[in-house]
From TrEMBL:
Lineage of the species this protein comes from: Eukaryota, Viridiplantae, Streptophyta, Embryophyta, Tracheophyta
A molecular-function term among this protein's GO annotations: calcium-dependent phospholipid binding
Protein name: Uncharacterized protein
Origin: domain of life: Eukaryota
């Protein structure tokens, strides 16, 4: 089992996105994708924004729009910006691309509204 100190040591040597992707894949192989122990370990091992990005990706790809909506709509605009920044390093594509691929209709509009609008809200707070 990987201990927390070795993860912190590895963070300094390697790209964080690659490291956290390896942690996610390792937990998935060990516990499966729908195991509560996997979610607990990911929650404990990953920083908050990486954990939330992982949840959002899984909910979108499983077409679990109820949980995806809960996650996306409960985030602050600065958190959405952090997730948008790390999402490509974890999954190799933009968050907006996954929203376009996995959602439809009103859900797509709401998600895109939150994700795109969060950029402008964050900019407004930085300039005031």
């Amino acid at each position: 089992m990987v201990n927390l100190q070795s993860i912190r040591d590895m963070e300094t040597l390697y790209d964080r996105g690659l490291l956290y992707r390896a942690v996610i894949e390792s937990c998935s192989q060990k516990f499966g994708h729908d195991n509560q122990m996997r979610y607990l370990l990911l929650h404990l091992l990953l920083p908050r924004e990486y954990y939330l990005a992982t949840l959002i990706n899984e909910y979108l790809s499983k077409n679990d729009l109820k949980h995806a909506t809960e996650q996306i709509c409960s985030l602050h605009s600065s958190e959405i910006q952090q997730i948008k920044g790390i999402y490509p390093s974890l999954f190799g594509r933009e968050l907006e691309d996954d929203i376009e691929t996995f959602t439809f209709g009103e859900h797509r509009k709401v998600y895109m509204f939150y994700v795109v609008l969060s950029c402008y809200i964050t900019l407004m707070y930085k300039h005031t």
